[in-house]
Amino acid sequence: xxxxxxxxxxxxxxxxxxxxxxxxxxxxxETGAGKTLIIDSLEIIAGGRFSKEMIRRGEDHSVVELCLYxxxxxxxxxxxxxxxxxxxxxxxNLCKINGRLVTVNELKSFMKNVIDIxxxxxxxxxxxxxxxxxxxxxxxxxxxKELKEKYFNLFKEYNxxxxxxxxxxxxxxxxxxxxxxxxxxxxxxxEANLKIGEEEELEILRNKILNSEKVSENLNIVENEISExxxxxxxxxxxxxxxxxxxxxxxxxxxxNLKSIYYDLQELxxxxxxxxxxxDFDEQQRQEVETRLDLIFSLKRKYGSSxxxxxxxxxxxxxxVEQIENxxxxxxxxxxxxxxxxxxxxxxxxxxxxxxxxxxxxxSKEVTKQLHELEMPNCSFKIKVEYKNNKEFxxxxxxxxxxxxxxxxxxxxxxxxxxxxxxxMSRIMLAIKNVLAESDDVxxxxxxxxxxxxxxxAANSVAEKIKQISKKHxxxxxxxxxxxxxxxxxxxxxxxxxxxxxxxxxxxxxxxxETIKEIARIASGNINEITIEHAKQLRKNVA
Length: 543
Description:
A 6-stranded antiparallel beta sheet has the order 2-1-4-5-6-7. It has a 6-stranded mixed beta sheet with strand order 8-12-13-3-14-15, sandwiched between helices. It has helices spanning 35-45, 104-111, 122-126, 132-139, 141-166, 172-192, 198-210, 212-242, 249-277, 283-303, 307-325, 327-373, 416-419, 422-439, 456-469, 482-486, 512-524, 529-542; strands at residues 2-10, 13-19, 24-29, 61-69, 80-88, 93-97, 100-102, 115-118, 380-387, 399-406, 414-415, 444-448, 474-478, 490-499, 502-509. It has 18 helices and 15 strands.
């Protein structure tokens, strides 16, 4: 459940905290006070889209923070989870789950199992046939999950093969042109006889050639200083120590150390002489190095950013030439693989079809029953599942799912778009939500003005249905109907006022007396003895 919602700098909301409770939480209040902004904030924290225009005027960022209590959740042993989303006017987006940074997609993936928000646009979504299979599959999730995962993996492989079959290099002339181009590239790379690490070695050699005069001059200095000065001086020192080494062991030890230095210097002098010999470069050597480096640069510009990438590219185009030259055999292999996948996918699709048909019948009966209880006594809801054995696979298989309804006895079932009115759509959606809620693991349901187009006896029935859902889920509901407000376990009043020439939203949880007055206000627009008595009666009926 949501234990606390913190919203800062969204629309007219300055900075509010809302402590929600388990059961049925009702949100009512003045028009334009910020009820919709609270629902928008929940959609934002659920990973929904955010427009920078929603940031409160004069501020540079917005914050939505949600404290959840989800016992048994793997993220936190005690069940307490904090989800935060900060959005800045420069487009920066910061999402966290229990302090750990996550992407918006990761946030969305987590929250879809936590909260289900039914806004006013969802009635329109229900009219889109493409969404119907999603509702059905959500209901049958436990039976379908493993099959759908297996099918989807095959479907991805199937799409890859179709893509490869389309890329068949055109006609014979086009194939030959492609082969000629690839062979030219192969020949150019292989004639270069490239070696890993060669470029680095050439760069070092090139640097030596360009600095050969400077190197030679300084090596001469080093050699002269060692051989003419250092070695002669140490030789003289050795002779001096030899004259006194017998006097004290310490002199003998120093003599031994000095001789070691003498031999090391002689070795170093020979090494320097050898280095001097390697500093003599002629113009031809310089030209050879420059030409080789130019060739490598040219190949890198065409085929890769390094010798290693060039060689890898060469391997790939050798394989491509072999593939084109053996294209008929390659295409036959792909087609055989495609046929195997089609057979496996068709088998899974048939299994999914049977599961969908079975669950469609269950939902149809339950939704029809719910609609009768929602003051649509002659209404019949039906889910049609049609299996298209045409191998036109999509991500859901081969089934076409459509919601049908008839509202009068003697009529035939028709698509929702042809039959349902606004008020009927709200009740159909509520009936579907109620049926899905029985099998849904999502703990929090949010209804934003589910009562659109509903009044009278139907409003009482809608209220009862939402109350029924709230027994197994935490429910948050924005409403303008007194019968729905009357069934709230907790009622919140949202208002707005002006502080320092800025409008801001306020929210407070109502006590019983305040709740009665709010129900009276919603019912008639006036608060007097008659409307208060009516509100008490509505409240009493719930109790």
